[in-house]
What does this fold into?
Amino acid sequence: MTKASVCTIGDEILIGQIVDTNSSHIARALNSLGIQVGKMVSIADDAVQIKGCLEAELQENNIVVCTGGLGPTKDDITKDTLARMSGATGWVESEIQKDIIRRILASRGLDALEINLRQALVPNTCDVIPNQLGTAPVMVFRFPEGRFGHPAVLYSLPGVPYEALGALPDVLEDIRQHFGLGAIVHRTMMTFGIAESALAKLIEPWESALPEDMHLAYLPNPVTGVRLRLSVYGADDSAPERISAQFALLKPVLGDYIYAMEDTCLEAVIGALLRGSGQTLSCAESCTGGMISHLITTVSGSSEYYLGSVTSYHPDVKAKVLGVDPAIIESDGIVSAAVAGAMARGVRALTGSTYSVATTGWADAYGDEREPAGTVWVGVDGPAGTRTARFNFRNDRKRNIERFAASALNELRKYIISVK
Amino acid sequence: MTKASVCTIGDEILIGQIVDTNSSHIARALNSLGIQVGKMVSIADDAVQIKGCLEAELQENNIVVCTGGLGPTKDDITKDTLARMSGATGWVESEIQKDIIRRILASRGLDALEINLRQALVPNTCDVIPNQLGTAPVMVFRFPEGRFGHPAVLYSLPGVPYEALGALPDVLEDIRQHFGLGAIVHRTMMTFGIAESALAKLIEPWESALPEDMHLAYLPNPVTGVRLRLSVYGADDSAPERISAQFALLKPVLGDYIYAMEDTCLEAVIGALLRGSGQTLSCAESCTGGMISHLITTVSGSSEYYLGSVTSYHPDVKAKVLGVDPAIIESDGIVSAAVAGAMARGVRALTGSTYSVATTGWADAYGDEREPAGTVWVGVDGPAGTRTARFNFRNDRKRNIERFAASALNELRKYIISVK
It folds into this structure.
């Protein structure tokens, strides 16, 4: 069984200046190949530590992925250390990476200096996977079996997160080929509105009846819901169809909880529903403070259907800008179906959008006499009138806001589907 | 020198389902005591791995802080492992934690069951620091010098981030007392609008002239700017004043770049300027999609002065809701001083706020004929009329949005100060 370890190098991690997100992305990427990560280590930009850590991990694993410690201002500590570790006898220049370096610097209006081009130099003991998003290439060190007692490969990636992420597909392909992993087929379906434990109970009979070669993974997330991933390792051409057939069996079981038969998120599904339709969307937020708007705008092409939002943090703004009748706030309470509905209708009238979604809730640890802490009322307005729904969560403020926003997006999604 | 290591336990970390933020917080907390973290490790909920990892780290460090692996559904793997590692001969019940467990469950409308109260049981080899925010107490294992060759203490914290964070002050106090660290005094000042390297150059003479016992740390952050922290370890009563005197020397050097003489953030400084003043704030966002509104609303008590925002993602909404003259968009371009100013005036008129801040920019990798990618125009409106400012950053979309929002907040801050 292929074992892997992730090592993130950087003083900035150890002083808690940045949070290490690379490990998380790399682990998910390796998992998609059926490779488990047994340990994640973060260490300093220190030659002795780097050597010690990487060698220890290469002793225990077939694959070690490390990030960081590369770059002109880091004195190339990692690169020099890896050169020595791998017994390099010289340096090789990657022409491809040199071109990339020139291109990147030119796009910033700079000439490529010696100090920049030097990043294209690698030890003559590694393979290079070009880094299209930055100046430091990915280096692949393949250690012979005698060195660590088993075949072991070390992938050295840049530390900058979006460069490391950008390199992952090529790294995965290299692993797939060199470890003879064969074809791996995944299919993912998305659910929302049901907790992982309840979901597991519902699909237990189905899960027990899965074919031997299919592996199920539960991947819950407060904002995207619970993702179900079925994987076949060493797959043949029949795998995609077989997996789809298995997922189809879940439709009568899970019904409305399913929102997509691919790896996506609620805001992207809403985008797919609205794109090209000529229909538009607006939102009215309160305690969610801009989060729903933020999520909608993360979808590429959302400017086609998303008009904008009003965050009415103060009750007066609910009245003044959204036209919510203060008498309703008085009679029903600020967190209520009536106010959520009025906010949705208000922003829809203000922007002229086809659909609108609104939230009003208590995200903090306090509520009022009518509604307890953690309650949100969601309102959706559109061609079929106003609909409202209530949710209550018992998390901290930040998590409640995420869940309020996600619940609102799901109600909007269901509304749009019901109208089409 | 006191060495520390952080160990985060949890399968969910290794499968990349969650990002480990605990390590980052713990490192910063330890740093505030002058203790450096040499390594951060994430491992599985596995007794053998936990024992192996913790013992290895206790061999190399005086302090090991571990999080996770506690809780009724985790089969108490960590607790059992620690009991065996420490040679416990029995279990002790923490009455304080039992009370907390009952209180927490009652607040969720639940009775405390046996499975919940069992979390108050700890090995008879540890001290307990009660966890006020959750059910699992913090356990402190003090190993005698003979065990690892030096005094070593292991702090076992809950894995849930906000519980771990909540426990840190008490953990730090325990460390401070037991490691005889004496008083440690920090003072922090905040700067914005100058890069770390440029800042370092400006204050280099001052830094070289600092007294021997004062240590300077640069803590840059794209949203809060560069933080400067001066620390004195083993401080006496004169330390706070001495540090303040040193910082005062920087005022003529850094001038306008300084926005606070304490550890804070732009949105909190704005909050402090507006709280109790009766003055109010609104914002009009475009490409920042809700981020400015979100930042403003993270400040406790912001509902006192923050009225709300309009996110005008579509140009029509800039016209329809904010009253921006389409002719201006035509003549000056959508990303321009004129549009930023008009948006600020528009939302100010719409909400009736005292001040308003607006952004219009190109956060992605494309711009237009007038303004390149990464450009934002910020508009601020208020009693002294409209002011605009332009910034250009060359980061990815996400980072550009953060910097646009922060720059907007800083312009707003400077405006408010100039008017008072």
About this structure: Chain A touches chain B through 65 residues (CB under 8 Å).
